[in-house]
Amino acid sequence: MPAIQLNPAQRKDKRSDAHHLDPVVLVGGDGLTPNVVKEVDLALTAHGLIKVRVFSDDRAAREGMLQILADQLNAAPIQHIGKLLVLWRPIPDKEEAEATDGKGRPRVVKIVKFSKSGNHRPQVKKLRVLGNERVAQGGEIKRAKRRITSVKKLAQEN
């Protein structure tokens, strides 16, 4: 996969965004092992913009590592300054399955009721709430009602 190409203005923005970041991946004396490449890939997926510290004194080797990582991981090489490499790749959108996952499954909700006098401990209850239910004020569980639509909208759908 080829590396992402950025224009100088975009690269400048990414450099300024990366200024305060700490290195996420450290490359030791063994160089770019498959495990290091895997960790860089995971960090790019999670963060998008990362710094990699290379513990090598050979400048040409560090430049080569930057190009290899950019090519293998489809990332943009942002900066190579000293022993730090900065890489960027857009964060992939979360899949729809993950986004809708929280709605349908049961979840455990903790309800805390405080005593009226203030001298006693609060009562803590754990309740199992299904996807079509909600917790109302006072700890009551209510089911979601089906939304009523107008006759005109029903006719348009059919």
Q: What share of residues are in beta strands? A: 25-35%
Helix content: 25-40%
Give the total of domains: 2
Number of strands: 8
Q: For this structure, what is the CATH homologous superfamily of the largest domain?
A: YhbY-like
Largest sheet features? 4 strands, mixed
Give the ordered list of helices and strands: HEHEHEEHEEEEH
Mind sketching the topology for me?
Layout: H1 8-18, E1 25-27, H2 34-47, E2 49-54, H3 59-73, E3 76-81, E4 84-88, H4 96-104, E5 107-113, E6 123-129, E7 133-135, E8 141-143, H5 151-157
List keywords for this structure.
four-stranded mixed beta sheet, single chain, 158 residues, alpha+beta, Translation Initiation Factor IF3
Could you give a short description of this structure?
The chain is of the alpha+beta class and 158 residues long. 35% of the residues lie in helices and 25% in strands. The chain has 2 domains: 81 residues, Translation Initiation Factor IF3, CATH 3.30.110; 58 residues, no CATH class.
Overview of the structural elements:
The chain has 158 residues and is an alpha+beta fold. It has helices spanning 8-18, 34-47, 59-73, 96-104, 151-157, and strands spanning 25-27, 49-54, 76-81, 84-88, 107-113, 123-129, 133-135, 141-143. Strands 1-2-4-3 form a four-stranded mixed beta sheet, sandwiched between helices. It has a two-stranded antiparallel ribbon with strand order 5-6. A hairpin with a 5-residue loop joins strand 7 (133-135) and strand 8 (141-143). The longest helix has 15 residues, at 59-73. The chain starts with 7 loop residues before the first helix and ends with a helix. The model is unreliable at 96-100 (pLDDT under 50).
